[in-house]
Amino acid sequence: MYVLNLIGFPLRLLLPLLASYCEHRPPHTMPRRARNFFIKLTYFFKQFFDPSRRAVDSNGAAPQPCMSAPKQPPIPLSTHATALLSQPATTAPPSLPLVLPAPTTPAPAPRDVEPTIIAPISASSRSPAPVPPPTSTSDSLPPTPSSQPRHFYAREMFHNAQGIIISNSQFIDASHAGSGLERLLKFSMPDAFHDSGARYPPPKCHLGTRNEYIDLITNWALEKSNRKEPILWMHGPFGVGKSAVAQSCAEALESIDKLAATLFFSRSNGDRDDPRRVFTSIAYQIATKCPSFGEIISRRMTEHPALATKSLSKQFEDLLVQPLGQVDIPGSGLEGCVVIIDGLDECRGTAEQCEMIKIIAASVDKHTTPFRWFITSRPEDPIVRTMNSSTISPVCSRVELPVSRAIDHEILVYLTDEFKLIRKDHGFPESWPSEEVLALLVERGAGLWIYVGTIVRFIKDENSLGPEDQLRIVLEFAKDVSGKIGPDNPLAEMDFFYTLIMQRVPPKVRTTVQKILLVHSVLSDDPSYVATALRLSADQLRRACSSIQSVMELQGSDLNSMEIQFYHTSFLDFMKDPQRSKDLCIYSDFLIRCRRELLVWLHEVCSRSTDSEHIVFPLGTVLPEGLSSANHYANVVAWFWGLCEVPEHPLDSQTATSLAELPFKKMLGLLGDHGELGIYDGQARDNLPAEFRDKIIREGRCPIPGCMNTGKVWILGHGENETVPRQWETLGFELENNQGLRNGKCICGAQIRRGRRPISARIARVAQFLLNTLP
Ligand SMILES: [Zn+2]
């Protein structure tokens, strides 16, 4: 014992450092195996050398269900991206910048309460990486309720790597390094700034177009117009060019030092729609513009790192109003600067959209910030109602950006320039295309920029017989569609054009394209997840995506660096709406069919496979080179679950019956080390027919023998298929391997009562031992 204590003393000194390192370091910056190893090691030594700990355990102290560090924020999708041309740019996109924009992941949420015991393999030591702020922060934000289901994965540093050896490593605790501004940046959305690399080249007005609106807005900003209200709201339907106007205004105001901050929301492009990162993003940009504000905010973020995770109104108060109160505004150059928020309707959650408007309006009413606010959005009902309310109306001026034939001449200028570039590239004569053709295209575009831009990309499609043939298809389409919907209905015509784009994809590839769009919508916008779920190689994914390159772009050379970008949100909206896309729709029948197919597949895999090392797929399943069975299986499980959560499509009785019979325990066990999906509670349960809910997902007392948890846990399946998944703190559960107890803890996170096992368990254990050892 003396020797043990001799070893134990220095170890006890080292342990807090080691523990702090392992727990605070973001999981994606350290190989999971190494991290788990250190945590296990730490736990082991704590168990071994800490007498108080041993006493607590043997006395059967009150269990601490799910005692774990706060979860990490979502692992960011890499942010190398391309432009979204909601309105065409003047020149062909140049090559992408080499410098990647800064990652958008928040820093690890700080702990409000430091647990004195390290959870051996707590949920936090693995890394499904949800957003939640520390659970003990009273006003921390819950996951955005009105959003689409969002799932969170961890990315492993050495994905699928085996036999990792770490030698001569030097680990430095960098969790508190860096200034408060760096911390703030991690809680921001830099990809949504007007000058971000992810939006490069940004959609902006073709030279000489939209001057009327740009002048109107800049004059309002400079207080040179009759519009005295400090908020200006520009509304108009999709594709009319709001973002392009906002971008042009941002650049114009920046050139005269009148721009405070910008945010360009995008629902269909990764990490640019998070309401919780709006005021942090604005505060960060102001901090980079005004050094005295920057110093104050940096200090605040260092002293109170949880500020960035508070509610929207608290963030506004703590990150903008209070720091600005300490700044000499007249000398700061901030007075009258403009904050531009583009595409508010694309921010996640209508309640959050409206709350933001109210917070901003209250601020301008009380003069708590020195800014003018330019906001654009579609005229969605909740936004219109909020803008029309009696408190906001007096401080808000409005501009409509309609679909208007008044801009025909601007569209003609744009088309002329684009065709000039195509002629040059292909050596076509000056006479191509004829003036009649140009006039017809302007006529069909009928003032909708996104339509005209999509037509141009369609004509340029590299996977076609060439621009002449593509133009011929457009002209035939125009003739055909004009008979169906008449003139001047570009929104309806846009749908017909999207239909044409999808119909021109060969049927076999089309189904794959639909599945890509579906996985992108319900599971992840990360191409590597999409490809793994669908058993596609990088090359196959690229080919499929290039078949619809008029509406989307796949950047990057390999799966890990690829990014999917949509030119305009309206395409995915179209593909999800069965009224608009009819039999091409990725929701509706297509989704239901996929869900059933996946469920049949899961049943078959569960019945054929023995364990996660021996997953057996149905006959004829071919995996592309480099894709492991386990990875594919894990992503299919995640995809299937995502499909079960789509609120527009509750499960029918037939599917629910089959789901209730799924061997959940085995399904999770087969995940091995691969599944890492956090499931918000209730989402899938709400989608089940009432009579099936308790058979598939329910909350109840932990059924594991000896478990000392007194609270409720999530339970999957029923009867012999019943299993307790890993619990995800207070948020839900995790689709992960849940086999076995870890270090005396139940799978639900609580302590297991010590003592003699029941006789049946002991017999089973001996039998298993004999089976394993006998030849
Ligand atoms: Zn339990």
UniProtKB/TrEMBL annotation:
The keyword Signal applies. It comes from the Eukaryota. It holds the Pfam family NPHP3_N. Residues 219-378 form the Nephrocystin 3-like N-terminal domain. Residues 1-19 form the signal peptide. Keywords: Repeat, Signal. Residues 121-149 are annotated as: Disordered. The keyword Repeat applies. PANTHER family: AMELOGENIN, NACHT DOMAIN-CONTAINING PROTEIN. This is Nephrocystin 3-like N-terminal domain-containing protein. It comes from Leucocoprinus leucothites.
